[in-house]
Structure formats: C-alpha cells, structure tokens
Design brief:
This is F-box domain-containing protein. It comes from Lentithecium fluviatile CBS 122367. The structure is a single chain. The protein has 129 residues and is mainly α. The chain has two domains: 44 residues; 85 residues, no CATH class. The chain has eight helices and two strands, in the order H-H-H-H-E-H-H-E-H-H. The protein is elongated.
Amino acid sequence: MLDAPTVITENIAAHLDHEDILNFRLVSHALRDRSLHAFAQRCFENVFLFLQPDALHDLEEIARHPKFAASVQKLTVSNDRIHAAIKPPAAEVVLEKCFAEIAMAQVDSDWDVTILTEVLSLLRNLKTV
C-alpha cells in the first residue's frame, strides 16, 4: 500500500467510511498525509458546535487549518449543553454552579461573538449555518 501511487491511495481513502478512514490514517505518516483530503471532507463537511470555550477553540483550530477549513460546508451552532440531559452527582452540582457563573461572565464579555465572527470569515466554503 505504501508503494502505491498517491492518487490510488487517495482514491481508496475517499471510499472509506468515517471509522475506517480514522484507522487508515493511523497506519503510517505516509498514509496519513495521502489521506488528508479525504479525511477533511469526511470529518469536517458538517461541524456541530456547542457554545463553550473548548468547542469554540476547536472550531478556531479547524478554521485556521487550510484543508479542514476548506471542507466545512455546514456549521450547526447550539447553545444547549450536551450534559444537561445527564443528571450529575451531588458533588458536581456545586461545580456546575461555579462553572455557570464563569459562563455567564463570558457571555457578558461577548467572547463567543468575537471568536465566531473571526472563524466565520475563515470558513470560505461555508454554505449553511
């Protein structure tokens, strides 16, 4: 496989499903490099974003990567918190209140608007938000 022409390796990668392309890229640096385009198209065409600092940072990293940013066509933004449906243990409730205060301070500072404005300007192929 490593001796195959790049175009053949890219073609194979383009036909792998999501899980298989992740495993394919773990085999070697050469396969990782040759499958970058297929990986970017498969994994970054539709991006889902929770409005949280870590998620915004991840989106910013995607937007700054030339191949990944070029692949993003749809961005779904949610202000719902994924763990809201999970009932936390009592000790986590106290931490949750602390994090809620921090989150409110961040919302008041418009940090999310600033980052999203910058990121959206970098996603040139974005069609849907």
